[in-house]
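Ticket #4471: structure export looks truncated?
Reporter: QA, pipeline team
Priority: medium

Steps to reproduce: submit the single chain below to the structure queue and open the exported record.
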Amino acid sequence: MDASQPEINAIKANFPLLERAVAQFDARFSLRALRSISSLRKRLTSDALAQAITQAYVSPTPTALRILSAIGKTEHDTSGKGSEMEIDSEPPASATVHTPTTPASKSGSSKDILPEVEIYLSILAQVYLFDQKSYEAGAAFSSEVVQKIHWWNRRTLDSLSARVYFYYSLFYEHLDPPPPSPLAPVIGIRQQLLAALRTSVLRKDPDTQATVTTLLLRNYLSTSHISQADHLVSHSQFPTTASNNQVARFLYYLGRIRAIQLAYTEAHDHLTGATRKTSSSASAAGFYQASTKLLIVVELLMGDIPDRAVFRQPRLERALEPYFLLVQAVRVGDMEAFLHTVSTYHSTFRHDGTYTLIRRLRQNVIKTGLRIMSLSYSRISLRDICQRLGLDNEESAEYIVAKAIRDGVIEATLDHERGFMKSKEVGDIYATREPGEAFHDRIRASLALHDESVKAMKFPMNQHRLELKNAQEARERERELAKEIQEGDIDEDDAGGDFEGM
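Actual output as written to the record:
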């Protein structure tokens, strides 16, 4: 037995799923085939993929040759496999049990190959090229597949097309020069992605629409084109029926845009939703770390301190170590520790894309230090404030204290002549509306989660029509039975069967 035979069988096992998706017009089977790629890619080889293509396309069609050429197989190799393909074209009786009896299931002829099967094989070729780091070849091949998808208008291709566009954008992101260079090749695919977005909206294709929208936002943010990303969000509508992963990506990119635009409250809401919608699987650990890092920085910019339990999660503990030190410096208002942390982990923050936002935290460190000093001392001189916060002179300290008082950061008064700050007595926070507002936010988040869970529920298509048909048939039988009883053709005892009255 060939060593790659299990991989070939795993690839060919998804063909009947795609055929059922077309026959029953049910996207769940296509999604099941796509989910199998994550386990298949670990053992996917060019030989296994080439043999699967060879057995699917008996004759050397241009489509088969194009996929084989992309993975480095220039010939449609049928040598040594001819007898096996002939056997596969006429499966035995035991094999027909697992194959749907549809015309498309007869893969013995290349003309019967469905477009869904062709795109599925193209996706496997994309995955193989990406894992082999063949970015230029993958970009060229993906461009050809995208051009072909653009002219097909089949709803059963929606989920497959979305995956093709995902790898299409991913290949161009890895080409030199990388973003944020103005010469990055990723800038050149924006027109193609915008055209795909327009087409998906006109065709009512929510899968491709959601995927392309997140890819465009990622594209704009990679080159720091924030205004264009915001323009896209304001002039487009994200589909409500998008998958949970795409919603999480969209909320993450939207939270990053709002954070850069100083709308920290909106950014916090979006990033909180992104972290809650992130999958708990190990494959989503990177996205969860990125969204949590940005959420921590946004919370610090809002003047809040993240919960310590966030840093104790197993999949976050090591990645969040620089941010934990940053939170400690901001929490106590230690300017020296803050500057030391920023300089030490400068490269890490730049790699995470949070360095620009972290630079804004200097004012928050100063405000936190002032708040702690206002609570600790009833009166403190401006000279002591300069020494504790590392400010240049007393005039700068006086200006910062005055601005903090005006913004409501601290409850204090400033004596300009004597040069000190006098704190006011702190009232009971439970006498204010803050606890009620926090409780209201938690209730609103719970209700929103419940509504989204209800919307995310999926049911078999046209199931209600089948139930309606069964109900109508039951009513017809009841009418016929009542008519026969009325005409005397059947007794009531016979209609009731073995039922015995009370």
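Status: closed, not a bug. The export was complete when the record was re-opened. Leaving a note from the reviewer for reference: The two ends are 70 Å apart (CA to CA).
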